[in-house]
Specification:
Elements (H helix, E strand, L loop, with lengths): L1 E9 L2 H17 L5 E3 L6 E11 L3 H10 L5 E13 L2 E9 L3 H16 L12 E7 L2 H14 L7 E4 L1 E10 L2 E11 L3
Antiparallel strand pairs: 1-3, 1-8, 2-6, 4-5, 4-7, 5-6, 8-9
Length: 188
């Protein structure tokens, strides 16, 4: 039997609350029907998307996570941005500066996955937290214009990433649910 898996950093509650405020500010100013807002509990920073994985491989993935000697990482926000698809904004996200510490941790995990022959999406690591997925071009353009006119919703500051998690992704009633299968938590 297989599971849909990914490894991610859990975001701290102070950052999650600030991103939730961003969502509320936008919702209070714009009526967007073609936008799916990410639930706060689903916000994370993807390290490696593994896709469908035989559940027999899960212990190997956990061993890899345990072997990287994960320590808390400081991250700093770069601002609100968009990924485009078909020439219109499709993903609204909060971008993070890729520090050496962050790059080394992600690189170490991905290197160990490769060594063990565990496949994952090999796109370049892009440190970000998805805030919304945009389905309609009109809403995407409206949101893009609104965010760029406002420029800053909150001040980018440093945050501590204290948790590395192996998540299983399931869809229930067309909504993603992320179930933690293994967590390394360095919170003090």
């Amino acid at each position: 039997m297989s599971k849909r898996l990914f490894i991610a950093f859990k975001i701290p509650s102070d950052l999650k609350n600030e991103l939730l405020l961003v969502q509320h500010k936008i919702k209070n100013n714009l009526e967007l029907k073609g936008v799916n807002w990410v639930k706060p509990d689903n916000m994370h920073i993807t390290v490696a998307f593994l896709g469908q994985v035989d559940e027999k491989v899960v212990p190997q993935i956990i061993d890899i996570m345990n072997s990287v000697n994960f320590k808390s990482i400081q991250v700093k926000g770069e601002g609100l941005k968009f990924f485009n698809k078909n020439n219109y904004p499709a993903i609204f996200f909060y971008s993070l500066e890729v520090t050496d510490e962050l790059k080394d941790t992600v690189g170490n995990i991905r290197e160990n996955l490769i060594k063990k022959g565990i496949d994952f999406d090999r796109k370049n690591f892009n440190a970000h937290i998805t805030i919304a997925r945009i389905k309609e071009e009109f809403d995407g353009n409206l949101l893009f214009k609104f965010v760029n006119e406002k420029k800053t919703f909150f001040e980018s500051k440093k945050y501590s990433i204290n948790s590395l998690v192996l998540f299983e992704s399931k869809f229930v009633d067309n909504q993603p649910i992320y179930i933690p299968l293994h967590e390394i938590n360095q919170e003090v």
